[in-house]
Amino acid sequence: MIEFYYRAISPEGETVENTIKATSESAAAKTLLGKGYFPIQVQTPEEKSSLAFLGNSNPLNRITLKQKVIFSRQLSTLINAGLPISDALTSASDQIDNPKLRAIVADITQNVQGGATLKQAFSAFPEAFNQAYISLIEAGESSGTLDKSLQKIANQLEKENSFQSKIRGALVYPVIVLVVVVLVVTFLLTTVVPAVGTLYRDLGRELPWVTQLLLGFSSFLKNFWYLVVIALAGGLWAARSYIKTPSGRLAWDGLKLNVPIINVLLKKIYTARFSSTLGTLAGTGVPLLEALNITAQSVNNRVIQNRMAEVISKVKGGGKVSEAITEIEYFPKLVSQMLAIGEKSGKTDEMLEKLTSIYEEEIEAAVKGIQTVIEPALIVFLGLIVAFIIGAILLPIYSLAGQGINTTGAGF
User: Fold this and answer.
1) Radius of gyration (Cα) for the chain, nearest Å?
2) Please, which pLDDT band fits residue 252 given cuts at 50, 70 and 90?
3) Are 105 and 89 in contact, with CB atoms under 8 Å apart?
4) DSSP state of 325
5) Above 90 in pLDDT, residue 158?
6) φ/ψ (deg, to 5) at 168
7) How far apart are CA 191 and CA 144, in angstroms?
8) Which residue of 111, 138, 222, 300 sits 20 to 30 Å from the alpha carbon of 325, by its own alpha carbon?
9) Which of 185, 164, 203 lies closest to 390 in space, CA to CA?
10) Is the pLDDT assigned to residue 234 strictly greater than 90?
11) Would you list the DSSP string of 65-111?
12) What is the C-alpha to C-alpha distance for residues 80 and 393, in angstroms, rounded to an integer?
């Protein structure tokens, strides 16, 4: 008898993981089926460890949004062409470059061939496919419009990828400038300033306090640089650890909503995510409350998620989304106005799509605006730091020169 690790869907519809003893993988799968469990994955502990090592240690195996977009579009095209779902999954899997995603799609294909629904097959891999993806798959599967649902999924992921790209694009220049600032200041403090300090000490004159402060910091940095590195690394680790806690994440998300300039862009991105996700889910027939719950998670900000929970509670009590959403001050009034029009006309998804288009344009404008403000501000910041260091170096020279002139004048 061999002990196998398995992942299966229980009779209650939940995904469970455990071990089972059997003579072979097929025998283990049959035993699970006999108990009412639908096996998703059956493997030896050695295989499980090997796959886990491959998936977690290699950063090249990370599944990107762009890769999921390509997979979803290919699968949609193949299903629309009339291929059976299992054949479409096999063909789409053959065109995937990412080994981790290819292995996941291969497992999904096996599960579908074994009788699982697409929802069950995709639900087994929450690390790759979130709840919004699975809900859209389920809606398309039940309505017979799976190809259209997959297209909507691809469009949604493409928009999310666009949002992330815009944020990264806005941060590239500031990060480069900050790196330059650190390198220039480090060079001055560890090379130029110590040399000047040695010269001043040889003169035996008392130095201005600004220069003494700079020389003291330079000496500390040169002799105890490792303490600075440890302090920075420890501070970053402590901050990251705190942010991972519920209270820390709430505080961090709240801070992001209140930082000047940046919060303007983030609020627009959160609004676009909300309208895009809710519009996509509503357009495929996902029940309203389920759509709101999924949308709240997609916003990815705990402060807004908590406010969304209040909205969901009011909608459960019979209230309208357009009225309840007005209490979330981080969303502009246009959101509730467009939702109200959609509720009256029965075209909520169309109104939300228009809202998404509006805020996509505003996000692009906001990114350009932030770059316009940040770029000169960082250059001025770099200039002030360098000017302070040079000023602290030159101040004693002017002081000594002044003393020399006074002495000469007294001699005459």
Assistant:
1) 30
2) very high
3) yes
4) G
5) no
6) -60, -40
7) 70
8) 138
9) 185
10) yes
11) HHHHHHHHHHHHHHHHTT--HHHHHHHHHHT---HHHHHHHHHHHHH
12) 72
The dihedral sign for the CA sequence 248, 251, 257, 261 = negative
Tokens of 369: 């605006």
d(CA 63, CA 352): 28
Phi, psi of 331 (to 5 degrees): -100, 135
DSSP letters spanning 161-210: HHHHHHHHHHHHHHHHHHHHHHHHHHHIIIIIHHHHHHHHHHHTPPPPHH
d(CA 302, CA 250): 5
pLDDT in tens, 356-398: 889 888 888 888 777 777 778 888 888 888 888 888 877 777 7
- Consecutive H or E run containing 8: strand 2-9
- Higher-confidence residue of 400 and 266: namely 266
- The length of the chain in residues reads 412
The dihedral built from the CA positions of residue 335, 338, 340 and 346, taken in this order, carries a sign that is negative
User: What CA–CA distance (Å, rounded) separates 3 from 88?
Assistant: 34
Distance CA 295, CA 311 (A): 12
Instruction: Examine the pLDDT at 347 and tell me if it is beyond 80.
Output: yes
Tokens of 229: 């590195």
Task: Write out the DSSP string of 56-74.
Answer: HH-GGGPPPHHHHHHHHHH
Q: What's the pLDDT score for residue 40?
A: 62
Q: How far apart are CA 120 and CA 15, in angstroms?
A: 9
Parallel, antiparallel or unpaired: strands 15-22 and 2-9: antiparallel
Model confidence pLDDT, tens digit, residues 189-215: 888 778 777 777 766 667 778 878 888
**Residue 55 clears pLDDT 60, i.e. is over it:** no
Q: What is the DSSP letter of 19?
A: E
Q: In the chain, count H helices and then E strands.
A: 18, 3
Phi, psi angle pair for 123, to nearest 5°: -65, -20
- pLDDT tens track for 132-142: 888 888 888 87
Q: Is the distance from CB of 382 to CB of 180 less than 8 angstroms?
A: yes
Q: What are phi and psi of 319, to 5 degrees?
A: -75, 165
Q: Residue type for 39, please?
A: P
The CA-CA-CA angle for residues 377, 379, 384, to 5°, reads 95
Q: Mean pLDDT in the chain?
A: 80
CA distance 56 to 344: 49
The token pair at 82 is 């009339």
